[in-house]
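About this split. The held-out portion is used to measure sequence recovery: a designer receives only the structure tokens and must propose an amino acid at every position. Recovery is the fraction of positions where the proposal matches the reference. Here is one held-out target exactly as it appears in the evaluation file.
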């Protein structure tokens, strides 16, 4: 049985699959969930939300070699804190032909102003979970064959009109295939924007978890 938990819903499905003629594809490097130190930065110093998409070069032994942002980051102090966190992680190396190889791990860091987060009386949310929640058919066959499970945390930003303006993996499940499915499903959702105390819709960020289980 495959269980995929998304937001407030729990979806359970029976899945029958065959292992014949299926070869798991190669995998990129990925940080081991829970192995990274916290980002040491005061959110109150931010004037606006910040997203940092970081690419970490990982050796075939799983050692982080370097970490660089995929786009310019104005706050050098925040970038330094994020890089320090990424370089503290344990990593699973990439796989090439089934063997450990040098590769790149991608991580998205999302930061919201502390005052802005506290001012919200309503966080952005998915309008109808059933429309974009993953089903058993979305569970990658290669992940089933390799018994890959875990929790993918997706960070996303919704503008005052309910449009998705940014999203990415805030915490990996440890398996890129599962993370990619979670991202693809969230991108199809419709959203209700966050609101300020006076009821005015506002741009805001939030996070949701996809829990992937095979039983």
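Reference sequence for scoring:
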């Amino acid at each position: 049985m495959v269980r995929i938990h998304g937001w407030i819903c729990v979806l359970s499905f029976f899945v029958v699959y065959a292992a014949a003629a299926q070869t798991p594809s190669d995998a990129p490097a990925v940080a081991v969930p829970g192995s990274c130190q916290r980002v040491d930065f005061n959110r109150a110093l931010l004037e606006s939300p910040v997203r940092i998409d970081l690419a970490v070069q990982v050796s075939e032994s799983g050692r982080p070699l370097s970490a660089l942002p995929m786009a310019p980051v104005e706050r050098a102090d925040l970038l330094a804190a994020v890089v320090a966190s990424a370089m503290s992680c344990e990593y699973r190396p990439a796989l090439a032909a089934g063997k450990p190889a040098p590769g790149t791990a991608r991580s998205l860091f999302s930061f919201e102003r502390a005052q802005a987060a506290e001012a919200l009386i309503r966080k952005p949310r998915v309008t109808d979970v059933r429309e974009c929640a993953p089903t058993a058919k979305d569970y990658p066959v290669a992940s089933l064959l390799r018994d890959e499970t875990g929790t993918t945390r997706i960070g996303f930003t919704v503008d005052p009109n309910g449009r998705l303006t940014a999203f990415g993996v805030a915490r990996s499940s440890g398996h890129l295939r599962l993370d990619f499915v979670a991202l693809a499903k969230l991108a199809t959702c419709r959203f209700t924007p966050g609101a300020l105390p006076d009821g005015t819709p506002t741009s805001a960020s939030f996070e949701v978890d996809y829990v992937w289980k095979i039983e």
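Annotator remark: Residues 1-25 have pLDDT under 50 and may be disordered.
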